[in-house]
Amino acid sequence: MRNLSDLFGRKNSASTAKERLRLVLIHDRSTLAPGAMEALRDELVEVISRHVEVDPGEVRLELTQEGRSQRLLADIPLKRRSEPVPDEY
Amino acid sequence: MSARVITITSGKGGVGKTTATANLSAALADLGYKVVCIDADIGLRNLDVVLGLENRIVYDLVDVVEGRCKLRQAMIRDKRLEELYLIPAAQTRDKNAISPKDMQRVCDELRPDFDFIIIDSPAGIERGFKNAIAPADEVIIVTNPEVSAVRDADRIIGLVEAEQKGPAKLIVNRLNDELIERGDMLAVADVLELLAVDLIGIIPEDQAVLVSTNRGAPIALEPKSRTGQAFRDVAKRLSGQEVAYAETNGTGGLFGRLSKLIRTGGS
Ligand SMILES: Nc1ncnc2c1ncn2[C@@H]1O[C@H](COP(=O)(O)OP(=O)(O)OP(=O)(O)O)[C@@H](O)[C@H]1O
Ligand SMILES: [Mg+2]
Question: pTM score > 0.90 for this model?
Fold first, then answer.
């Protein structure tokens, strides 16, 4: 719904409340200790790097919601091969 | 007959648990069901005054549990509705005077004689809350469209699930169409999306609630009141009927967004 505060580029307070609550609830529901995400991410990078080359800066870990349950999503882009693909065709 | 035990709880205080308990109990009794409501807020007795039955209390829940009277002696019959009874809380004791097992025993004794046992839970997540949900077959969470009430409701929903009493159903109380329209109050659809639970009632903010509480006469018994109708609708939904959510005042805000949510298949 358009209203005056929207026109001035300020979000209405209900959408601010909703967005803040969304983040608070993710945190409240999580059994993951605060700060554990960082440690988990570093360890994941370490384990995966033993098998395949990854760029540590690109690894993303994220808690997502599905209804009332939570899911940990990891996005781990692999490094490209450095040598060019042989052109056999 | 074996009663369904329904506990009304919230986490945050003052969101309307006692108001909802009184009105749902009255509305269910008005539909012809045999109903007993229990005030489990030991030390902060209130359901008696909201129902207008405070002058007739002789014995209370703690007297029953401690064997000073028979269960029947602590049950006060409503003057307006033949089939509505109240078991009041003790006012001078604290929540530790009863245990979850006591609540289960009391409810088991009541079950054969009633259709519904409605329990008014105290705020918080401590002993009083545990007492109130111990005998529950179903749990209704009351919340307001406001950040701290929604946050606490989420916590309680999690605890109810952990106690295997879920899935809880939600009443959103004190909605103000004008504020929603203006973008300064969370709409029901927002609250449902955040909490991811099923809705069972939408109750408007209404000064008539204060008036009916002053009189000790539940608003659910006032045929012309739209807030009374909202409580009667919850009672019907509890009894298994499908009742559409009312359009109010023609504002697109709350109900527009809600029906949009329903149409897109969310719940
Ligand atoms: N829909 C409503 N519109 C206006 N006022 C309301 C509404 N619902 C409840 N109230 C008022 O809000 C106040 C608190 O309500 P109530 O006592 O039912 O809350 P509660 O959750 O039982 O509180 P507590 O946690 O202290 O037990 C009361 O003054 C009541 O009249
Ligand atoms: Mg209360």
Answer: no
